[in-house]
User: What shape does this take?
Amino acid sequence: MARTFDTPGFAGMTFFEVRAKSIINRVPGSSRMAFQWTINPYRGCSHACSYCLAGDTPILMADGTTRPLRDLKVGDAIYGTVPVGASRRYTVTTVLAHWSTTKPAHRVTLADGTQLIASGDHRFLTERGWQHVVGGVVAGDRFMGTGQFVEGPKDSADYRRGYLSGMIRGDAHLATYVPEAVDRSLDYLAGFGAATIEAIRDLVRWPERAGDEWCKGLLAGIFDSDGSRDGDELRIRSDDKETLDAVAAALARFGFDARPEESGTAVRLRGGLTEHMRFCHLVDPAIGRKRSIAGLPVGSDTRLDVLSVEPLGVDLPLYDITTGTGDFIANGVVSHNCFARSTHTYLDLDAGHDFDTKVVVKINAGELVRRELAAPKWRGEHIAMGTNVDPYQRAEGRYKLMPRILSALRDFANPFSILTKGTLILRDLPLLRQAAEVTQVGVAMSVGFVDERLWRSVESGTPSPRRRLDAVRTLTDAGFRVSVLMAPILPGLTDTDDSIEATVAAIAASGAASITPIPLHLRPGAREWYAAWLTREFPALAPHYRRLYGRGSYLPKEYQREVTARVRMAARRHGLERAEPAEARQTESPPPPPEPEQLTLM
Assistant: This one.
């Protein structure tokens, strides 16, 4: 790290100046983008996916126990899931980052009584795939997982007596006991001061009236002694009929469906993994391997159906983690974690609040671009900029990274394209013209609407629409064919005939070569922010948005087609042919172009 400082021009922000090791990044093969290479001179994010769950949410640990989310630590072993073919299976993973903040909270209620307190941008795994709490999860969805975790036993004298009764009355021999069970038994005996055979017999005598805690202890002890789990089967055996009857009665007491085997020497617990997990959490056996679910398939049933999703109307302390698998098991359901925030921890920054307020500046971006373009392995492929973070954000006015980047691209005659909302691009117009003389240069500007009042409310951190269109005119007069992404089009606000007509007319007057409409889609981070803004500024539209976005981040296809058709007709009236979606960032004779992207609203 070269330097760290705060500046009055960016209240609440801190800049971390770093010397990066590389700058031209390959886009993952799974990405929807058609281009393969991108440059991002800045990293940092006031609009990324953030905090998720209440601190008391129980998380499934690798040893089969649970721990509140707030108490997790980096390095803890917990359960996550991995895709195997068309399904997912449980696996042990590691906590890589852990953070907290305060955010508006929502309550998700499931049919089995589970209540999950989460932020609106948190995601859970459903039968439809990953869905956000706000704008994704709807009543009737079915979560994936084992079902609600139950509270474990109290470490009481009754529980300890019950555990010793189960262990000592079991049929296993001492030599076959696992150390975990032996250590617990010896600890309990020492606590009672039971040093003689008579004292031990007194401890394990059947009580006249067995309470809940004693019965939980009995089940834990007999399971450690003579129980087994193999996939979907949980079985407890005993050659002593009195002991087996006591086990069956204790299981029935807690609502388990246990059936005796024909041999009369064992009972089998029905209900699959959900009931096995409930058994292990309720009675807390000592032997960890008997509680393992690693390798088992992730399933679901009607008990995990969503009954409701409702805002609590208050801000609460919420927590999230990053794990090796990208998910974790929160109160019995599969919960997504945040990937991007862990990258801030590589710089010794907190992965929570710091991620929102601290911008990483790659101060050596220009020299890196020049060095990497000169590498023998580089083949001069198209590079897209503005695909993740706008290179002409306000910080660029201070750091001036783009002139050095553009100079290198010009000198190596490497084709590139830029998508921006920043009028600061005009500062670099001479460099863009020089580059265009030796290679293919594509420029696109994002302008979703021209309503200044709405802009001040929803996009106040960006240059005004009129200033952006003035920049389009300047770039056009300089000889560039500038594409305009009419993005985002806001349902109920800027999708009216009057708004579309005014916006298309202004874009046409700016001299734009093409126009591509992109209706609003709400990705992680933007989703919750936009929902809060809409509820505050236009509360009557909130039910309309819930209907439109009830099944995901994107608007229904029929809505998108209808809006696109109206924009196309308006463009024809103003002599401006609508670009196909793939033309948004293309150069004069480009390689396969990217899909248009809606830049952030924030």
